[in-house]
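Usage

Read records sequentially. Each one opens with the input sequence:
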Amino acid sequence: MTDAKGTEPLPAGDFAVWLAGLDAAIRGDTDSDVPCDGCTACCTASQFVHIAPSETDTLARIPRQLLFPAPGAPAGHVLLGYDERGHCPMLIDNRCSIYEDRPRTCRTYDCRVFPATGVDVDKPGVAARTDRWRFTHPTVLDQVRHDACVAAANYLREHRGELPDGAVPGNPTQLAVLAVEVHDAFRGGDAAVDPDPGVEAVSVAILRRRRTPE
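and closes with the structure output:
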């Protein structure tokens, strides 16, 4: 079930703790630990799922006819599409049929990245879920980091044309993740946020965080 009809707030956790967990997932050290509680909004949102050639266990579980080359990516990188309902074809009876071998994209996906950065999600079902997340900020650092992530997302959108070509993705999920990755550039101090650290500083932060495809 997508749990799209719920309206009550959902605890997203202490912001700094969540941020550390997401950073570890992005680095590939662990999977994102999202309290989905039966929600399948991201699995039913007409999303393409990227799979790298190194994900051999995943590729072995998915029928080849469901995969096609990922545009603009190196050879071997593929996308898993969705069915006529917008559902992932590996979602059977509202459960992931390959959960133990699910793609890394799914392992690192965390819809809390949208309220963390203020980026609007373009998928109604996912948006209904993300609107309910509520972070807690038990320390000043939690609030500063949250504000810096929002500032980063705003800056990336507003200065897209001044930053390196192709550096700022148009995809909302990728934009939100990039904002989290470079948010340290927007911290003016332990208890301050710098909303405009400058194009050069942000460009350096982007290039430092950019990863080479597998």
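Summary fields computed downstream for this record:
- The chain has eight helices and nine strands.
- The two ends are 33 Å apart (CA to CA).
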